[in-house]
Amino acid sequence: MSTSKTEVATIHHFIGGKAYPSRAKEWRDVTNPATQEVVARVPFATPEEVELAVATAKEAFKTWRNTSLSSRLRIMLKFQQLLRENVGPLAEMITREHGKTLPDAEGEVGRGLEAVEHACTITSLQLGEIAENAATGVEVYNLLQPIGVGAGITAFNFPVMLPCFMFPLAIAAGNTFVLKPSEQDPTSTMMLVELAHKAGVPAGVLNVVHGGAEVANMICDHPDIRALSFIGSTHVGTHIYRRASDAGKRVQSMMGAKNHCVIMPDANKEQALNNLIGSAFGAAGQRCMANSVAVLVGDARNWLEDLVGKSRGLKVGPGTDRSADLGPLVNRNARTRVINLIDSGVAQGARLLLDGRDCQVPGYESGNFVGPTVFADVKPGMDIYDQEIFGPVLCVVGVDTLDEAIAFVNANPNGNGTSIFTSSGWAARKYQNEIDVGQLGINVPIPVPVAYFSFTGSRASKLGDLGPNGKQAIAFWTQTKTVTARWFEEGSSAGKVNTTISLK
């Protein structure tokens, strides 16, 4: 990555252990969403550049797969140290290109660090199984071997955390990797990759190409890529899953959501409302795990006025303002889409209690700001309920009982995450057992598990059996080879011919 006299960075690919200047004809501006200032230019890779990245990874796999577990472990240990030392610079890059507040960006780097720390346990994770004397003198054992060249395609909303959900564990397991980060905010991802190489990742093991849909399709189609991890929207993720699966790849696709937060009347009111608001409006709602629907049960419906009051008190500002609660949306198109959805909510009969459409931030009049927005009387069939808004818009629904809340949440096709706030262990357990959602928070607003547990979204929020992180990720990035072995003593009798299938 180089910087011109105008301080607009030129983003390069990363191939063979070094920056690779692109010969692309198509480039895209990367803008600061708080100011519209162009801060970088990113290339859309040519077919030849994608081919080079994959070929480089394929060649590197020949030696990397045979590198000892302890050697890979030491590289991951160094990587996590460098990541920990560079939280500040990475967060500043995230804020400049994504817009989220600096504290939130620092938190993102921290969650990415958790995933790298999990990769540091590879010597325990990549263990096979053995049965001695499975038959007379016969051993049967499993080997967890690297699958080959892996690839990852990530969304814009977590430019550090999402790559950390993919390549650290993949390369720690002995695979090589081709990463396509979001073209909207690539600079922090590139620094992450540079830190990995500074930690000792050999040239060719980790490669980066930039681009849009055409590059993603090339990755899906390439015959030398064996496994592909995707995190992003449902529309794109469904396409990626089908296309890559048709090309014979192992695929995991983590997609969109419509997450519900159920608040029981016995919940601690202040804690429940504060946590709900933080989940709904943090990162300006640009999280697939945001609780964007509040389901108020019974007397908790009387808390609506307090919910609106607390939401109104949030501060909107540039992400560099540490006192701001939420920053701008990532680009102009995102702002326009969110405002259009708010307009549709009004037109379709939802009750608008707090309107963030005309949000103005002094000194940042060109920013992509939308203020906290709250709708009541929201129903299925309304666009603001049926679509993932990906903006600071909270939909509120009221029901009489926990059973009604469970039925309402289960009727939604998505299953990424949900939360319940209650003081009742019985209610929490009932919700845990009966809710058909992959990730559940009990008095926790954003139920993303720690990285040594797998990310387990379900239903329309996920395609593929295995999710990122945890034990599922090891299964995804390795292939199991089962060996059945018998060794004969030198000079022993050959015995009789055995035409049965049994082992004796």
UniProtKB/TrEMBL annotation:
It comes from the Bacteria. GO terms for biological process: L-valine catabolic process; thymine catabolic process. This is methylmalonate-semialdehyde dehydrogenase (CoA acylating). Its EC number is 1.2.1.27. PROSITE patterns: ALDEHYDE_DEHYDR_CYS. It is an enzyme of class 1 (oxidoreductase). InterPro entries: Ald_DH/histidinol_DH, Ald_DH_C, Ald_DH_CS_CYS, Ald_DH_N, Aldehyde_DH_dom, MeMal-semiAld_DH. GO terms for molecular function: methylmalonate-semialdehyde dehydrogenase (acylating, NAD) activity. The keyword Oxidoreductase applies. Residues 26-483 form the Aldehyde dehydrogenase domain. Keywords: NAD, Oxidoreductase. NCBIfam families: MMSDH. Belongs to the aldehyde dehydrogenase family.
